[in-house]
Automatic annotation (TrEMBL):
EC numbers on record: 5.1.3.15
Originating species: Arachis duranensis (Wild peanut)
Cellular compartments per GO CC: cytoplasm
Binding of substrate, residues: R58, Q76, R81
Record's protein name: glucose-6-phosphate 1-epimerase
Positions of transmembrane segments: none
Keyword field: Isomerase
Gene Ontology molecular functions: carbohydrate binding; glucose-6-phosphate 1-epimerase activity
Coiled-coil portions: none
Family indicated by similarity: Belongs to the glucose-6-phosphate 1-epimerase family.
Active site as annotated: H159, E263
Catalytic activity: alpha-D-glucose 6-phosphate = beta-D-glucose 6-phosphate
Gene this protein is translated from: LOC107483829
InterPro entries on file: Aldose_1/G6P_1-epimerase, G6P_1-epimerase, Gal_mutarotase_sf_dom, GH-type_carb-bd
An individual GO BP term: carbohydrate metabolic process
């Protein structure tokens, strides 16, 4: 279902028979909303988000490609998040089963301008699907279509902003005892010591070689997000807290209390593709009542 979104930007709405839904802007190939079958919003979208190129939309699921953050020479987080994607009318078969799923296929190819800043030809196919239980699945397939025989390397993240009731009541399970690079301390490497992660100040860490399943437990809402990933070894955890929040023009001063980014990513080791090769990175999100999976 296609319609005009904010500022006339084109969006696609996915609806699943039991009532869950998702909204995808072609600008950025960006999921801006994911609602469960009670109509509750599960992703955070800033009330100050700017829906206007070249600014990336603040919230939802921006795609960081071909560069995560400042790990390279491109602008922060690469350019996929502020390009206009197209609907892929004739996608090659995807490995994902689409039975009972609402889905849309998008494609991004570099423009001549893009090739000036990142001189590689690629086809990036993104399938966004909503499963019968309301699960949201994103599958990225990136192919090197260089005709000059050259490989290329990239880093990547699904920069997911989860909506939480109160950041001080949130716990993340699955990252304890892992090594991480701390962006707030010159990207130095540390080892997480404690239990599940909790939050009382700014955090900007890249957890390395993480398990395929991570849980975000929102005690107040009694909701647990379960994130499953494939092809994406790392996980970025980000919350700007009060000072950085104030410094961001497209983010409300107090909104940091109601969001947490947990980003399935490939950062520490860049992905390298030879011409003709394809990489696949998958993210699956579900939201379940906490008691079902954490015993809380
Ligand atoms: C996170 C990075 O993924 O994204 C942070 O780890 C960064 O360092 C944040 O501040 C937001 O980035 P941006 O470009 O969307 O403001």
């Amino acid at each position: 279902e296609f319609s005009k979104g904010i500022n006339g930007l084109q969006k696609v709405i996915l609806r699943e028979s039991r009532g869950s839904s998702a909204e995808v802007y072609l600008y950025g190939g960006h999921v801006t909303s994911w609602k469960n079958d009670h109509g509750e919003e599960l992703l955070f979208l800033s009330s100050k988000a700017i829906f206007k190129p070249p600014k990336a939309i603040r919230g939802g699921i921006p795609i960081c490609f071909p560069q995560f953050a400042s790990h390279g020479t491109l602008d922060q987080h690469g350019f996929a998040r502020n390009r206009f994607w197209a609907v892929d009318e004739d996608p090659p078969p995807f490995p994902t089963n689409t039975l009972n799923k609402a889905f849309v296929d998008l494609i991004l190819k570099p423009s001549e301008e893009d090739m000036k800043i990142w001189p590689h030809s690629f086809e990036y196919r993104l399938r966004i699907a909503l499963g019968p239980g309301g699960d949201l699945m994103l599958t990225s397939r990136i192919r090197n279509t260089n005709s000059d025989g050259k490989p290329f390397s990239f880093t990547f993240a699904y920069h997911t902003y989860f909506s939480v009731s109160d950041i001080s009541e949130v716990r993340v399970e699955g990252l304890e005892t892992l090594d991480y690079l701390d962006n707030l301390q010159n990207k130095e490497r540390f080892t997480e010591q404690g239990d599940a992660l909790t939050f009382e100040s700014e955090v900007d860490k890249i957890y390395l070689s993480t398990p395929t399943k991570i849980a975000i437990i929102d005690h107040e809402k009694k909701r647990t997000f379960v994130l499953r990933k494939d092809g994406l070894p790392d996980a970025v955890v980000w919350n700007p807290w009060d000072k950085k929040a104030k410094a961001m023009a497209d983010f409300g001063d107090d909104e940091y209390k109601h969001m947490l980014c947990v980003e399935a990513a490939a950062v520490e080791k860049a992905v390298t593709l030879k011409p003709g090769e394809e990489w696949k990175g998958r993210l699956e999100l579900s939201a379940v009542p906490s008691s079902y999976c954490s015993g809380q």
